[in-house]
Design a protein that fits this description.
Layout: H1 3-24, H2 33-61, H3 69-95, H4 101-136
Helix pairs in contact: 1-2, 1-4, 2-3, 3-4
Length: 144
């Protein structure tokens, strides 16, 4: 499986985790142990995914084919925004009390929707670029 296919598979796993967290949000008391553990797991998975994705991009940058600086800047900016949004939500989730539930439920749903949109944006804009770079240099380890 090539690197982009692995990233696509990881996106599907993230979407499944987002769906589970979104389903649990209205059922659990905000700040509950189950919700905290799930949110923490989603956050860790997203961080690992971002690191992997950035390694793939860095690998392509080190090869014969180069990404445009604007494309790399776009990737870094999006990842920083996505991570910060999830971190803010997880922090609020872990420190809130039951009175905050009405406020955090829509906030959590918006955060998860934004993360889904970020995954779709990467699949539409970044992945084709990675596939093109890898195809141009089929000897590159990312293409394998």
């Amino acid at each position: 499986m090539d690197a982009t296919a692995q990233l696509r598979q990881d996106h599907e796993e993230l979407r499944a985790r987002f769906a589970l967290l979104e389903a649990l949000l209205p059922l659990e008391e905000m700040g509950s142990e189950a919700l905290r553990k799930l949110a923490d797991g989603v956050s860790r998975h997203l961080r690992q995914h971002v690191e992997t994705e950035e390694c793939v991009v860095a690998g392509l940058l080190g090869g014969v084919t180069r990404l445009e600086p604007a494309d790399l800047a776009w990737l870094i900016a999006r990842h920083q925004e996505d991570r910060a949004e999830l971190d803010r939500f997880c922090e609020r989730l872990c420190t809130c009390g039951p009175a905050s539930q009405a406020e955090l439920l829509p906030c959590g749903c918006r955060c998860l929707q934004a993360l889904r949109q970020a995954l779709a944006r990467e699949e539409a804009q970044l992945f084709p670029l990675l596939e093109q770079c890898a195809a141009q240099d089929s000897r590159h380890p990312i293409a394998a």
